[in-house]
C-alpha cells in the first residue's frame, strides 16, 4: 500500500489524476513465495543522481 499511496500523492501534487494505467507504467505486480507485491518496472530514470537535499 505504501507504493500505491506514494504514487497517488505524487500524481496529485502534480495536478494529475492517479489511474491504474498510469500506475502500471511504473510498477508491476509480482509474486514471491506466495506473497504479492509491486516492483518498479525498468523505466528510464529522469534524474541520474537525485539531489540529497534542497537548500533555501
Spans of at least 5 consecutive residues with low confidence: none
* Number of β-strand runs: 2
Helix percentage: 25-40%
How many individual helices?
A: 2
Into which percentage range does the β-strand content fall? Answer: 15-25%
Strand order of the biggest β-sheet: 1-2
Summarize model confidence as the mean pLDDT: 84
How far the N terminus sits from the C terminus, by CA atoms, comes to: 32 Å
Shape descriptor: extended
The biggest sheet amounts to:
2 strands, antiparallel
What is the rounded Rg? 14 Å
Structural class: alpha+beta
Order of helices and strands: HHEE
Give an overview in words.
The chain is an alpha+beta fold and 56 residues long. It has a domain at 2-40. The chain has helices at residues 2-13, 20-26; strands at 27-32, 35-40. It has a two-stranded antiparallel sheet with strand order 1-2. Strand 1 (27-32) and strand 2 (35-40) form a beta hairpin. The longest helix has 12 residues, at 2-13. The model has no long low-confidence stretch (mean pLDDT 84).
Quick structural overview:
This protein is α+β, with helices and mostly antiparallel strands and 56 residues long. It has two helices and two strands, in the order ααββ. It has a two-stranded antiparallel sheet with strand order 1-2.
Topology:
Layout: H1 2-13, H2 20-26, E1 27-32, E2 35-40
Antiparallel strand pairs: 1-2
Highlighted features:
single chain; 56 residues; alpha+beta; two-stranded antiparallel sheet; 2 helices; 21% strand; extended
Amino acid at each position: 500500500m505504501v507504493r500505491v499511496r506514494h504514487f497517488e500523492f505524487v500524481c496529485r501534487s502534480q495536478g494529475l489524476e492517479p489511474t491504474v494505467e498510469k500506475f502500471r507504467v511504473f510498477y508491476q505486480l509480482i509474486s514471491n513465495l506466495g506473497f504479492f507485491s509491486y516492483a518498479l518496472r525498468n523505466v528510464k530514470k529522469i534524474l541520474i543522481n537525485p539531489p540529497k537535499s534542497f537548500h533555501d
